[in-house]
Write a structure and sequence with these properties.
The protein is an alpha/beta fold and 180 residues long. It has helices at residues 18-30, 48-57, 65-68, 87-93, 112-116, 131-140, 149-161, 163-178; strands spanning 8-14, 37-42, 63-64, 78-80, 96-99, 120-123, 144-145. The protein has a seven-stranded parallel β-sheet with strand order 3-4-2-1-5-6-7, sandwiched between helices.
Length: 180
Amino acid sequence: GIPPSQPILLAASTHAGEEAEIARVFQRVRESVRDLALLIVPRHVERRDEITAALNGIGLSPALRSVSGSRIDPAAPVFVIDTTGELAAWQHLATLVVVGKSFLAEGGQNPAEAALAQKRVLFGPHMENFTPLVNLLLKKGGARQVADFAELASASIALMQDTAMASTMAQKGYAALKAH
């Protein structure tokens, strides 16, 4: 299993191209956040070979859930969840959730599960498919929208280091959705 104190950046429901960019963000954040692990849960698990190749290309050697079970090796802190139906379970372990399909594709993915799990939630500029939910979360301070991967890195570092701010965001996101 995962050490309970280990900080985890979870990339949820990622789409083509996002994994390598978020992994680069992870590499930057890890300079400031010791022992940070990256969990990637792609929207389409059949992309595992493409994702693994992209991560290898930037110097990371990811473990695959289908091969290594549920153990995260702190020495190889990148884990690709290439099994289906487990996003909710992994989100509960995450410290911070980055919502996929919100940077390089249109539409976004649903941030509700992460907010209801009381996680720090970040997403990119393209959340068109979830406008009412996104507007609610942003208005209540329960999530943060970033313009690009550079801002994702700085926001991730801030939310990992400022636990009071992060905790407030997580509570506000949960409260905003529980009210509905």
